[in-house]
What we know:
Elements: E1 10-11, H1 13-20, H2 24-57, H3 62-90, H4 92-110, H5 116-130, H6 135-141, H7 149-155, H8 158-197, H9 205-210, H10 214-228, E2 236-237, H11 259-288, H12 315-325, H13 328-342, H14 344-361, H15 368-396, H16 399-430, H17 432-452
Parallel strand pairs: 1-2
Amino acid sequence: MESLSLLSETYTIQEAIDYIGFGKFQVKLSVLTGFAWMADAMEMMILSILSPALHCEWQLKGIQEASITTVVFCGMMLSSSIWGGICDKYGRKKELILCSVFTCYFGILSAFSPNYYWMLILRGLVGFGIGGAPQSVTLYAEFLPSKSRARCVVLVEVFWALGACFEVLLALVVMPVYGWSTLLGLSALPLLFFSLCCFWLPESARYDITRGDYEKAVATIKRIAEENGKPAPPGRLVEPKVEEIKTGSYKDLFMPDLKVTTILLWIIWLVCAFSYYGIVLLTTALFENPDGCHGTDVKTNPEPKCYLECKTLTTDDYRDLTWTTFAEFPGLFVTVFIIDFFGRKKTMAFQFFVFTVFVLLVNICTKRVWLTLFLFIARAFISGAFQAAYVYTPEIYPTSMRALGLGACSGMARIGAIITPFIAQVLLKKSSFLSISIYGSMCLIATIAALLLPIETKGREMQVCIKCIRLKLS
């Protein structure tokens, strides 16, 4: 806690939050933000389960199967910057409620898809809604004390891992009896609960400052202090003058102090999504793979002409998928322990490199247990790298363009996610060696990009406006 002498006359929002410290308010916010991630993780994890099921039931070709996954990421890419703009213009709270209701509505509708084309349309709209989910991190990070920000942002991602694991277990229970339609409907319901809980959320005090609403920002700070059982900071709130604060635009992402960082972050986010969702899809794709090498003993026809030739996921497949999904937990805990010690840049670089090593080991023709182990470790570290990127990105951009910067990075991530199904589900059936090697090569590029980032944000206060971000690159 900051000493009273430092805050006796004036204080900034960050100084106020640091003064009050982490408490009951942040705990409740962590649970709520985490629940949003859990709900979205369920919608994303279902992609690796839905495609094999529809591949068999609707007798889809490889490209059609991949398109069901790709269309979700297309929707996310198209909407990421739109949601970021809404977030910066109308507020974090309104954006989160709107995107959650939107995603839930079309998620439930997709459960009633009568054919392949309706499934594409409705899952694309689900993806459009999910594109706004990363903004929950923007709101969450803006309420956290500086010392605990990185650790909290990473730890809240435990809920993503819980959501992914829960989805696999739900599929194990629901799919054999009720099928994919029921699974889709049940997976969308948590978002409805989250949207109702969002009415408890206060608007970000940082956002209120950018809109010139000092009284509302002060009221939010007092609310945080009251819920945490701490005194409000003495003095008065001071931030840059309202006329100096303007909402960021795309060209500001390439201002001299941010240009290199933005380009490198776009590479990092693209590779993160490409590799993370790639390893998720690879897991079920390798279990289906007809080469008789990567965990399967029986060769099957990759393009079956009839339903009886199609190989659906078995109980053993779901079991091993559950094990690889649990890899998210050690990945997150490793990130928590090293991100404040090594810094954001080195943490990302280290985790990208470890992923590269273990994903390339998947090329070895080996037993199912070793394949599962390699996939487990690879997924653990790419998950950790993704979360480190989520910590770094809100820290590097100022409040007036933070949501836009995160939204633009999220949009680049969707490009990687759009490409990955064609590598993990289509190219894999032609050449598993080439498919797996692409993932290793891409993460090697991301390793270099992380090391080249010009700014280390560990211990750095979050900036408020574009004019405030005079970065020292020396």
